[in-house]
């Protein structure tokens, strides 16, 4: 909700309450006016104006510049008319003007609508009218004039700052939404298109002939697509003829049904001669979208095992059902990851861990911790809270 809306609603209440205050003051002192009929005519016109326009300041789109100018004109007319319909003795004694504090509502409307510059112009006109009505610089008049002038300018400045903050926040939210959508698409591309192109390049290089040329073209498209996904990062530099090191096997993540689903059913297809799955004997329920993303992250971790651990490597998947979160651990007995390899892969545009694993867990409000010791294998621990409470990615 815009920060302006409460201000417009407050201004509506201010105008209504101050009209009642002005009418009460006039009723109590109407016998003392030099021309009570003239004063009564103005108060009647002011009441009709309020009845017709009370809802014009409830929203910024209805509070137009022409309305604000007319509202300020009515306030100035009432202030100057006071010198005509009231007696000089009452004016010298500090009697209130006909619109009294209602005139401040016109200045506040200018402040909220146009900022401190409009507020300064409106309050200056009200100040000049008050001084002209009194005829000299009385202490109470100057005090009231300065109060209206300073407060209206301050409110106008605050409104401008609030608007700038809202624009900054809206821009940041748009950038965040676009970044998240880009990362989601990048994960999907990494899990499908990029791995297919890598497989074509590797098989083409192995077959030779026309297939090698097809593999070379697939490798070029893979580099271009990785660069696009990485958001402008430099493409990876490979020696001529060297195939991509992506896995030949492209895993298909099972689709989760609508509503809460059993995560065990999504992880079971990953089991095979080289992959063991250990899960509780009771259903592990998780929202379908979160379960599908978690299963995809597990698949990305197994793809990394197939790429880097070798054909003889084994992997184990452990599913744990905790009261507040679900933990999935993927461990292998491969050679491990060399220090600095993950950072180098991200610089080269290879976003398997950064997007397919960490990005998915971050979007779920969970965390992904990767531990690897050269020669002792790699372990990836995926934690997903049952209810999203924030984002945390470590490791």
UniProtKB/TrEMBL annotation:
Signal peptide: none annotated. Pfam families: DUF5931, HATPase_c, HisKA_3. Gene3D superfamilies: Histidine kinase-like ATPase, C-terminal domain (3.30.565.10). Residues 376-395 are annotated as: Disordered. GO terms for molecular function: phosphorelay sensor kinase activity; protein dimerization activity. Residues 289-388 form the Histidine kinase/HSP90-like ATPase domain. It comes from the Bacteria. InterPro entries: DUF5931, HATPase_C_sf, HATPase_dom, Sensor_HK_TwoCompSys, Sig_transdc_His_kin_sub3_dim/P. Keywords: Kinase, Membrane, Transferase, Transmembrane, Transmembrane helix, Two-component regulatory system. The chain crosses the membrane at residues 12-30, 36-54, 66-85, 146-164. GO terms for cellular component: membrane. PANTHER family: NITRATE/NITRITE SENSOR PROTEIN NARX-RELATED, OXYGEN SENSOR HISTIDINE KINASE NREB. This is Sensor histidine kinase.
